[in-house]
Amino acid sequence: MPTALESAAVLNALENAGRPLQRYDIVMEVFWAAGYDRTTYRTVYDLKGGSVECSALIDTLRADGQLILLPSTQWRRILGDFNTTRVHKQRGHYWYATRDQHTRWTQSDRDRDNRIATIGARLKAAALPPLHVRNTTWTDGGSLVHDTHPDAQHCALELCTPDEDRVAEVTCNYSPTDTDSPTSALAGAKASAELFAHAPTDIAYLLSLLTTEGHT
């Protein structure tokens, strides 16, 4: 058994794991940290009663408020999907974390929810209609041409509403004198314009998934 078993051994085991653990897995992490061989002592049943004191200490720490015990459903609401790999196949779905871990994780959860709410508010305030990209391409002489025309030099990719009102514009000069790769320059500009055009609906869709999955 680890000598002078103290609270720090249990708290450190959880901090080092970086995720919630079940009771018997905490016990094993404490013993392994104390130098017990992982291949010889694989589960609490290999400790021949040596886990009793550690298990009692876990109860004491929980009673003192230094450990937080929650069901896996609540941890998932806080952490999202967390690593539930475990040594023991214990019945039940309750997992421990330190008080400090719980404080950090719940604050992170609140920060995430606040940011999601802020994004949603910005999206709602903008009230953008569906957007599409309008391509206007011209030569150095000002003649309108198709963007694949050999004399095409300049391109305006406008983000427009269904009424053809322009909301924003991405421009691209793809003359060989402006870039070594006109094709890549045009492709990059088109990709940027499409990204901006679909961003409002894409963001709204992602926010709906987060709301459906209970993260907000």
Quick structural overview:
With 216 residues, the chain is α+β, with helices and mostly antiparallel strands. It has helices at residues 7-17, 23-33, 52-63, 72-79, 99-126, 182-212; strands at residues 67-71, 94-98, 132-138, 144-145, 154-160, 166-173.
How many helices? The count is 6
**In order across it, which strands form the biggest sheet?**
4-3-5-6
Overall structural class, as computed from helix and strand content, comes to alpha+beta
What is the end-to-end distance?
Answer: 45 Å
Average pLDDT level: 85
Q: In what range is the share of β-strand residues?
A: 15-25%
Q: Biggest β-sheet, characterized?
A: 4 strands, antiparallel
N-to-C series of helices and strands: HHHEHEHEEEEH
pLDDT < 50 runs, ≥5 residues: none
Overview of the structural elements:
- With 216 residues, the chain is an alpha+beta fold.
- It has 6 helices and 6 strands.
- It has helices at residues 7-17, 23-33, 52-63, 72-79, 99-126, 182-212; strands spanning 67-71, 94-98, 132-138, 144-145, 154-160, 166-173.
- The strands form 2 sheets. A 4-stranded antiparallel β-sheet has the order 4-3-5-6, covered by helices on one side. A two-stranded antiparallel sheet has the order 1-2.
- Strand 3 and strand 4 (144-145) form a beta hairpin.
- Helix 1 packs across helix 2 (23-33).
- The two termini are 45 Å apart.
